[in-house]
Structures are given as structure tokens and as C-alpha cells.
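Researcher: For the record, we're logging two predictions in this thread. I'll number them. Prediction 1 follows.
Model: Prediction 1, sequence and structure:
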Amino acid sequence: MTGGAEDSILLTVSDDGLARVTFNRPARLNAMDFAMAERWREIAHRVADDSAIGAVILDAAGPAFCAGGDVVAMSTSGATGDDVTASAHVIHDGIRTLALSDTPIVAAVQGAVAGGGLGLMLTADYIVATEAARFVSRYANIGLTPDLGVTTLLPAAIGQRRALQLLLQDRTLTAEEALDWGLIAEVVPAAELAARAEAIARTWIDGATAAFGQAKRLIRHGADRPFAANLDDEAATIGARFATDEARTRVAAFAAASRSRPRSEETR
């Protein structure tokens, strides 16, 4: 892989297991070309396979979070429909790997999120956006159809009817509208975005890290399985967690605090 491709998405990991994945093609509004797609898949597997990573911040350099696929690259590279399909599969592998991992992800979003950028953003489990963030589909405007998980992750986040409104109309959501729709979790001033995303990630790192990760995994996998299979997985997972020294210590501390608390406070 060329140095340019490696620079298109940056990965850093702190000593305490906080990973930062940064889209880094600001001149192209972080739109994903074919080389960046390969880099995305590579980083997704590195993060998901590293048991020392307890949380991930997904962010972006420049004025926009992600403009989706790089349509200019598609148009000028001589790519065929088969090439575009193959690249979509590569990006989808990365999305699936991160979304179904047991590592919680917070996205820090600024500026435009367009097309497939919506799916990349929704790979995250918790999304914080600036007041100036904007969210739009624009697939049909150029004669294309949704990819990058948009037809699954978007209706899962905001419901089928609202997903259809966004995909079938040339509508742009403001940050406040996206918050109201449930597309994002928080809106903060631009100056506070990085610090807020890190604070959320560190609640996972500093808390019961594995339990947060397993909760995320259960929710993500549960969407595609029968109810009975989810219940079996929940039972096995909570039992496995209860058997750990960390959980036993935390449960004992909670029980001791509950016994010492006045009964009147338990309903407050």
C-alpha cells in the first residue's frame, strides 16, 4: 500500500487502550476512494482483533466528517460497475467488522455527512456532532443507490419512514433535527467536540470496559437473530461476566452500598 493510502485514515492507540481512527482526506471532504477503502478494512480488522483496545474514537480531519464515496475518483479512474461493487464489499467488510465487534465506538462529527458517510458514521455506537453538522443522502441525485450499510443502519437508528424521507427527498438535516430524529446522541459547540468524544470513550476505558463491549455486541448481533438466540446469548454472557473477579468486586461493592443506604433514598 502506498504512503498516501496509509495517510488517508490514521490510527493511533494510547497506552491505556483508547484507539483513534481519523479520516484524513480533508481536501476531498474525506470521501472514500478505492485505496482509502482498503485502508478502512485494514484498520477495522486491526482494531477489532486487538484485545488491548477498549474503546474507539472515530473522527475526521478538516471541515467535513465524510462525503461518502469519492464520486470524482469513480468517474475519472475508468472504474467499471464491477470495480465499484468490489470496493463496496471492501468497505462493507470494515463496517461489519467494527459494528459487530465488542469494542464500543464514539464518533465525533463536524460539517457534512453525505451519502455513504452516513453508514460510516453509524458504524459508531454513540455519535456527538457539532452545531454546524449537516446530514444528507444525495445518492439518487447522481443516479446511484445507497451502500455502506445505509439501508440497514439508517432505519435501525431513525426508523424506516424517516430513513425513506432522507433517501427519497433532497433533504438536509441540521444537527438539531438529527438529534430530534435520533440519528445522533448529542450536539455540542465545535470547540468542545474532541473533548466530549474523548470523555465518552474514557467512561468505557475507565469503567467495566469488557461489560460495555459485551453490551454493545449483544445489541448489534441481536438485530439479526431470533429472540430465543438472543436470550441464550444474554444468559451465557452475564454468567461469564459474573464469574470474573472484576464483576464480583463491583457487584459486592454495589450490594454493600445498597445495604448501607437508607431505604427512603432507594426511591429517589
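Researcher: Logged. Prediction 2.
Model: Prediction 2, sequence and structure:
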Amino acid sequence: MKFILVWLLLLAYAVFFAPGSEGSDPVMDNVFAGNWTAIDPLVLTVFNSLGIFPLVFLTILLRNDRWKWPAWPFSLAAFAGGAFALLPWFAFGDRPAKRSLRTPRWILRILQSKIWLILLLIMIVGNLLTLLQGFSLTAYGDAFMESSLVSVMTVDWFILWWLSVEAINRFYPDVKNKGLAWMPIAGPVLVLLLDKQSS
């Protein structure tokens, strides 16, 4: 029930309440124009992280895809829809069902490998290096109020963070170092990397 409620609130926020200019979206215009230097590094880092989060969910969900609804369509849809795509699966798709793992063995081997997990961490750290260019919380706040893209993606980012912690708690309840899952994006990957039983 909580996932459906969050999903409905997210939809309502995106459609009715997200701040932003009524005309063209300044951040979206710069994204489509490839004008990255005009975007604050923190805005750019959050934007890029929304492309990394789905890889984290693919890793967690496909390693545990034994449930009533297949996880892979929702995980792939998260690349375009973020939490909008994942919340319905968390609400309904994880209902227990007696079946074997759906994920092909060769994909499972990749997702369970330390090399894959380390590669994810490298991507996460590489994205954070964008912040070394200098960033401004004030500039981010201005972008949040002026751009519906930034306002919605910010809320989406926080929900994805929460869902990643929920996923670790659900599928790996007894894993060591579970508290690391609260570290945004990298935390769930570190939990899997450091715990041998999660492989």
C-alpha cells in the first residue's frame, strides 16, 4: 500500500505541483542542446545518477527475480521512468510465487560478479567527480524552482534512494553491513560486494 501511495503522490507532484517556468524548461533545453557547461555540476550529477540507479536495481532485482511479476521490464523501464516505473513492481510485482529464477544464468553470473559490482562503483565515483568542477546549492535551488525537470528528478532521486534500501532489506534481510545501504547509490552495491552470502 505504501508504494502505491508514494507512486500516486509522485504522479500528482509531477503533474500538478512541481515548480518550474510555464514556458520552455531552461535545464531541459541545455540538456537537449548538449550545453553541459551551462548546467550546475550538482544538477548534472543528480541527472546522471538517474541513469546509474537503474543499473543498481537491475543488479538487485534480477538476482532475485522469482516473484509473481517479472522484474526485468520494470528495471529496464526505470532508465526512462525512474521511480515512476519501479514503484508499481514494488507494490504488486513482488508477491511470492513458486517458480525458479527467471534471469538467464549468463546474466546472473555477470550481475553476481565482483567485476560488475566494482564497475558500478567506478561509474558512481566517476559521476561524483563532476562535483569537483564546483557547485552551488543556491544554484541548485534556483534550478529546482525554475525547471520542472530538476524539481521532478530531485524527488525521483530521493524515492529511488529509499527504494534501493527497501530492496536490500527485502531480498537480503540477514546480510552483513546492511546499514551501508543507506549510502546513496553506492551503498547497496557495497553491501553486495562485501557480503559473500549475497552472491
